[in-house]
Amino acid sequence: MNANEANSLSIVDYLGQKGFRPSQVKPGYCFYLSPYREEMTPSFKVNLIKNLWVDFGDANAGGTLIDLVMKINPGYTISEAIREISTVAGSSFSLRQPTVSGAEPPDKEPSGITVLKTKPLGNNRAITDYLHSRCISLDTAKEFCREVYYKIGEKRYFGLGNSHENGWAIRNKYWKGCTAQGVSHYQNKSDDLCLFEGIFDLLSYVEMRKGDPYRPDFMVLNSLANLKGAMPQLKPYRQVNLFLDRDSAGKEAAGTLMSSLLHCRDQSDLIRPFKDLNEAWMNRVKQGLKR
Q1: Which one is predicted more confidently, 290 or 269?
Q2: Could you report the per-residue pLDDT of 116-134, keeping only the tens digit for each?
């Protein structure tokens, strides 16, 4: 079984074989309690038409069946995930035809998050304090982010949001999620690009390079699930500098990019020995080191 074959198999059937049942079934999609973390309210959504998943309780989660297996099993490589899917598939699996009633495609796919309004940063003290807790100045964040006021069901919330091609990635001190999956591309008419997983990695990079007149283009994936779709946008650049997380998923993604696109360069030495760029920046600030 190759990756395309594995991803053609039904996510719903895989979850069913592993003992997970949907909490809510609607035309075209269904909700589960997350299969890889504890929660009381179902926020794990499977699109039955596209055969993709997204976890509204985890901004860094979403994608194909292989992505899901690797999320459930953090130590798995892509090959091990495919092997797992192949094993489960032998237990009676279908090809993208989930065995869930009420799967007719809707006229318009409903969204779990409704954005009510956005404002410039600086109006909400809690959001400003959240930025400062991550060692990011308000002036730096204003270039890339806004205050986002939204609701999930009937409950209203607010958070720091960065827009992308399909909506917003939103986070606050207690939660992170997204209205849809998509990448954020900030173009400065440069031949070089810096690629990040999350918005705080980009903000940390800008803080580190304050005073540097050179400004490359930036891209934030918002989730590694968006990597494949972003690759065509990486090809035109002279060089793509990778600042992905130093966990197993980030390292594997960097390896995939460098083997597929020869102009990609791994810059994770700047992060070492920390997990991500924001963690490295926060440690530098707390140690009182000069930029």
Answers
A1: 269
A2: 999 999 999 999 999 999 9
pTM over 0.90: no
Gap between the Cα atoms of 196 and 263, Å rounded = 16
Residue 70, SS3?
Answer: helix
Pair 14, 95: CB distance under 8 Å: no
Structure tokens at 226: 């968006």
Domains, the chain: 3-89 (3.90.580.10), 114-286 (3.40.1360.10)
Six token digits for residue 109: 């796919």
Q: Are 190 and 223 in contact (CB under 8 A)?
A: no
d(CA 114, CA 111): 7
What is the pLDDT of the chain when averaged over all its residues?
Answer: 86
The pLDDT score that the predictor gives to residue 41 is 83
| Cβ–Cβ < 8 Å for 193, 217 | yes
Among 18-27, 74-83, 84-93, name the one with the lowest average pLDDT: 84-93
140-145 LR contacts (CB < 8 Å, sep 24+): 140/203, 140/206, 140/207, 140/210, 141/203, 143/206, 144/184, 144/186, 144/199, 144/202, 144/203, 145/121, 145/199, 145/203
